[in-house]
Design brief:
By secondary structure, the protein is α+β, with helices and mostly antiparallel strands. Among the domains are: 10-68 and 78-146; 251-399, Histidine kinase-like ATPase, C-terminal domain (Heat Shock Protein 90, 2-Layer Sandwich). 56% of the residues lie in helices and 14% in strands. The protein is built from eight helices and eleven strands. The protein has a five-stranded mixed sheet. It has a two-stranded antiparallel ribbon with strand order 1-2. Helix 5 packs across helix 6 (291-307). The chain is rod-shaped. 18% of the residues are buried.
């Protein structure tokens, strides 16, 4: 049976990066527009200040020339202009008067800009204050940086939101595909032993068989029933784990004899010698565990070592402790796991995506159930692998029993 694959969402990724490019382009255009508009606004302010500089020159010149217009207000009769003898007040007084009315205008000894007007008595020039112009430029630059920062934050927020939605959708799609593969796998796992049992039942009732032949068929039927029982048991245990009602019965036991029995029984079930077992068990290591549930964990790991490793197999099981926790490792020389798949190996319904391993029967619930059981024991389970074809090492750590 070939399971469905989750193809990389190339279209969604293309849309995401296209939108990101459009947003960045829009940000660049908007910042360039702000630079241009702020420059135009600053030029307009400088033009207004230069007009004020001309007005300051006129005010100072009028004070010197003392031009007086005489006429009756509202009368149609022409008035007269009286020009008096110029009176040059001290430059200090004139400078104070100009700078008081026009704070952005300064009286300097020489011209700063080519169009700076000279006073009538040629005692100085009127120019725009450099500190005022510099303050305007700093204000403009600060406003641009603030606008750019706001735009960057807005675009970053949009991209983060899109990335979050993209990841959630991709995660949901992956979960749906895993569930679909799970249903197909369970259907296959149920269908195969049921079909086999039907064939053996028809054979038993339709033919006269020798006792040896009947014993062989009985053994095969027992194997199919065990397979069905284990599958249904796994499904029930997963349902109980989801509901938080997985019932564990803890016992204080020495781990070495228990682990040896579990490993050797599993080796016998799979075919004596098929696992290529190498047991390296430390002695006098005690822990409080549920022997049945934790045995199910070890059996699951050994079953995977058998399914995913080519012959001749070499499976090493070790037991040790670090003074606080018992450490059980199951190391095989099988197909291995790629680094990309390691973080998801204990997720529900997840199966390694390599096409060769997907041909192996399974539901994707075994390692998830291992994680739940070990966690309920207050321990951790993790996996390491150097990559495809390099084998895998599963490590269980759980507290030692109190002395």
């Amino acid at each position: 049976m070939k399971a469905a694959h989750l193809n990389p969402p190339a279209t969604e990724r293309l849309i995401f990066w296209s939108v990101a490019f459009i947003l960045l382009t829009q940000m660049g255009w908007w910042i360039s527009l702000q630079i241009r508009e702020s420059r135009n606004l600053q030029n307009a302010r400088i033009a207004t200040m230069r007009a004020g500089r001309a007005e300051a020159w006129q005010m100072d010149s009028a004070e010197i020339l003392r031009v007086v217009f005489q006429g009756e207000p509202g009368s149609s009769r022409p008035g007269s202009v009286e020009a008096r003898v110029p009176q040059f007040r001290p430059l200090r007084e004139r400078k104070q008067a100009i700078e008081k009315r026009f704070p952005y205008v300064a009286v300097v000894p020489g011209p700063v800009e080519p169009d700076d007007p000279i006073l009538l008595d040629q005692s100085g020039y009127l120019t725009l204050r450099m500190e005022v112009l510099e303050a305007m430029e700093r204000e403009r630059t600060l406003a641009l940086w603030r606008a750019a920062g706001e735009a960057a934050v807005m675009i970053l927020a949009v991209l983060l939101g899109m990335s979050y939605i993209y990841r959630k959708l991709n995660s949901e799609m992956e979960l749906m595909l895993r569930q679909r593969n799970f249903i197909a796998s369970v259907t296959h796992e149920l269908k195969t032993p049921i079909a086999s049992l039907r064939v053996w039942i028809e054979t038993l009732f339709a033919r006269d068989l020798s006792l040896e032949r009947k014993a062989r068929i009985q053994k095969l039927m027992d194997g199919d029933l065990v397979r069905l029982t284990e599958l249904v048991g796994n499904l029930l245990d997963v349902a109980r784990a989801d509901a938080g009602s997985l019932d564990l019965k803890f016992e204080r036991i020495e781990l070495a004899p228990w682990l040896r029995e579990v490993a050797e029984n599993m080796d016998h079930r799979l075919g004596t010698g098929q696992l290529g077992l190498d047991l390296q068990l430390g002695i006098n290591i005690w822990a409080s565990i549920d022997p049945r549930a934790m045995g199910q964990v070890v059996e699951n790991l050994l079953s995977n070592a058998h399914k995913y490793a080519p012959e001749p197999r070499n499976t090493t099981v070790t037991l040790d402790s670090d003074g606080e926790k018992a450490i059980i490792t199951v190391r095989d020389q099988g197909n291995g796991i790629s680094p990309r798949e390691l973080p998801r190996i204990f997720q529900r319904f997840y199966r390694v995506g390599d096409e060769m391993t997907r041909q192996v029967p399974g539901t994707g619930l075994g390692l998830f159930l291992c994680w739940e059981i070990v966690t309920l024991h207050g321990g951790q389970i993790n996996v390491s692998s150097h990559g495809s074809g390099q084998g895998s090492t599963f490590t269980l750590r759980f507290p030692l029993a109190a002395s």
